[in-house]
Design a protein that fits this description.
single chain; 205 residues; 11% helix
């Protein structure tokens, strides 16, 4: 079955090393190897790497699931407002792509640039909704070099169907149960306009 989160942020040939899969609440995934890990109890687990020479960085957050607002559109808007707009100086509307529902899950993803330090970074939000619950992954970077790591983590995602009446608590040992349909695309950066465009690539049949 095709994976709902297998989208390419930028077309690069390199591939980041991935660890064995772990599970955080609703999301099973393979984290990047040798990145700094941080766990904020009942909130998120994050992975961070930096390059002291180039100034490049990447940070990926896997967030705890919460109760759905009733639709993928409402959930994504709520997450964008609270996780992105309140945290980062994003002034542009996100480039958005969506996938059809499969196995009871729907996904919606968006990306936008923001000013950070003396340059431009991008923030990517991927929200997955199903069975009355929703969970998100947020990625931040200022370098194309980390696009394969983001792609690989998202491509590894499997969603765990929540138990009836489950509360918003982490369950690291739980096993994921389903992989919804593919969502593919890539980010194209224009050095002339200094903007990012999300170009959708149709998934294979």
């Amino acid at each position: 079955m095709k994976n709902i989160l297998s989208f390419i942020v930028l077309c690069l040939s390199a591939s980041a090393a991935l660890a064995q899969k772990v599970t955080y609440d609703l999301i099973g995934y393979a984290p990047p190897v040798a990145w700094q890990k941080e766990v904020k109890e009942n909130t998120y687990v994050s992975y961070t790497t930096t390059n002291q020479q180039s100034g490049g960085y990447c940070q990926i957050f896997v967030l705890l699931g919460v109760n759905s607002k009733g639709s993928i559109a409402a959930d994504f808007e709520h997450e964008w407002q609270n996780l992105i707009l309140k945290q980062y100086k994003v002034t542009q509307a996100p480039q958005i792509t969506e996938a059809k529902a499969e196995d009871g899950w729907q996904a919606k993803a968006g990306i936008a640039p923001f000013a950070f330090g003396n340059g431009t970074s991008v923030v990517m939000l991927t929200t997955v909704t199903g069975y009355g619950r929703t969970a998100s992954i947020v990625a931040l970077t200022n370098s194309q070099d980390y696009s394969p790591a983001i792609q690989d983590l998202l491509a590894s995602v499997e969603m765990k169907k929540p138990a009836v009446g489950a509360s918003a608590t982490a369950s690291p040992a739980a096993k994921p149960t389903s992989k919804p349909t593919a969502l593919q695309g890539y980010m194209d950066y224009s050095p002339f306009t200094k903007t990012w465009t999300w170009r959708l690539r149709q998934p294979p049949p």
